[in-house]
Specification:
Helix content is about 70%, strand content about 0%. The protein is mainly α and about 425 residues long. The strands form two sheets. Strands 1-2 form a two-stranded antiparallel sheet.
């Protein structure tokens, strides 16, 4: 791998400045008009430079093509195969712009990878996200949990990428403590998982070899272990009485912290079981759709007769609080395949970096966050961080060519983290 973790490309001061600005724009989720975002505008203007750069990353163009097919699929499902449901063209446009914003972010950030060190790209993204909070005012219900935790953690970890591992661990510890105090149980768990991944890389292997599948098995065991330990701490009240009461209520309701905390899983499962091909990006749920969704939530012993379900989830649109579920319901099977391919490519690339002891704490945090978001967070609030995960994880063709093809004996000095 190169010392800067950046694939070679023609770089000028102007191109680097444009890449930094583009990365910052991807960090902003500010939308105007029918859902148009700044990344879409930037991607259209910079199309001649970022599209050719995608050839330097395996699967990048395949993802873009599949995402474009998903856009078309969502429109066709709504305009041709909607049945007796009502179609809202403004909703179709808004949901399409959301997916297009994700595709734009992927293209811009991968091009930025050819111009900037990964740390500089992430710093620009985090600063853009903070500007977005300043413009929108953030979510005052819990400013840290819903607005500041991601950009501040990304910014701190990106700044620490040029320093020793212990600095990254310290930042993750601070993030975990603040998140516990701010009643952000999930983000504190992500920080703990990321910290464990960093610690795992401090153990020097006897031989350096890319073993992503073995690493993936270790990551799965690690994630389950952290989840079980965190659940025990929550139930025992170690992380605070408020978190204890909420956790116990969710366990009492469904017997599982995941299904108790994310009953939308039942809704998405029921809806997709009833119509596996999806519903369309502009389709409004009818009365039967809502009944089916609520029955799926009731199967998890959740009472769905409330304003959250009637207004937020199914009030004039389909929202199942899952990137995979949202893409599948709105854009059909191409949307689901796009989501799964994005996750698979990102996780595999991250596993390669971790197996070679080259995975940063930022990448580890993005990995934990991305896996969670794919199944348990809305597309609207997750599309840009998933684009950042892909951009930080994906190996360029140059990096892949330099991967160890056979076992290489290591000395302790060869495991020092690279300047990124």
């Amino acid at each position: 791998m190169t010392a800067t973790n950046t694939p070679p490309a023609v770089r000028t001061g102007t191109s680097r400045a444009l890449a930094a600005v583009a990365s910052a724009l991807v960090g902003m989720r500010f939308a105007f008009g029918p859902g148009l975002t700044l990344p879409i505008i930037a991607a259209l203007l910079l199309l001649p430079v970022w599209w050719p750069a995608l050839r330097m990353f395996r699967w990048a163009r395949s993802l873009m093509i599949l995402g474009t097919l998903a856009l078309a699929s969502g429109a066709v499902l709504s305009l041709v195969f909607t049945g007796d449901r009502v179609v809202d063209e403004s909703l179709l446009l808004r949901e399409s712009f959301t997916l297009l914003s994700m595709l734009s972010g992927i293209g811009l950030l991968l091009w930025a990878r050819t111009q900037l060190a990964t740390s500089h790209l992430a710093i620009a993204f985090a600063l853009g996200a903070l500007v977005n909070v300043a413009i929108t005012g953030g979510n005052t219900t819990n400013l840290w949990k819903f607005s500041l935790s991601f950009p501040l953690a990304f910014l701190a970890l990106a700044l620490a990428m040029r320093r020793r591992r212990w600095g990254e661990l310290l930042i993750l510890g601070v993030v975990a403590v603040i998140s516990v105090a701010a009643d952000s149980r999930s983000f504190s768990s992500f920080a703990l998982i990321a910290g464990a991944l960093v610690l795992m890389q401090l153990v020097p292997p006897r031989q350096l070899r890319s073993r992503p599948w073995l690493t993936l098995g270790g990551l799965a065991v690690l994630g389950i272990t952290v989840f079980l330990v965190t659940q025990t701490l929550l139930v025992e009240g170690v992380l605070g009485s408020v978190a204890q009461q909420r956790t116990q209520a969710q366990l009492d309701a469904s017997g599982s912290l995941i299904t108790g905390g994310r009953p939308e899983l039942g809704a998405s499962t029921a809806l997709l079981s009833a119509q596996p091909l999806g519903y369309g990006s502009g389709t409004l749920p009818n009365t039967m759709d809502v009944i089916i969704a609520k029955s799926g939530m009731e199967a998890l012993t959740y009472d769905p007769d409330n304003g959250y379900v009637d207004r937020y989830l199914f009030g004039g649109h389909f929202e199942v609080h899952s990137v995979l579920g949202d893409l599948w319901i709105r854009f059909g099977l191409p949307g689901a395949l796009f989501a799964l391919l994005l996750l698979a490519v990102s996780v595999h690339a991250a596993a390669v970096r971790v197996s070679l002891r080259r995975g940063s704490a930022l990448l580890a945090l993005l990995l934990a966050l991305g896996v969670w978001d794919m199944f348990f967070s809305p597309l609207l609030t997750s599309y840009n961080t998933l684009a950042l995960l892909l951009a930080c994880a994906l190996l360029s063709n140059t990096e892949r060519a330099r991967l160890p093809r056979s076992r290489v004996e290591l000395s302790p000095s060869s495991l020092s983290p690279p300047r990124r």
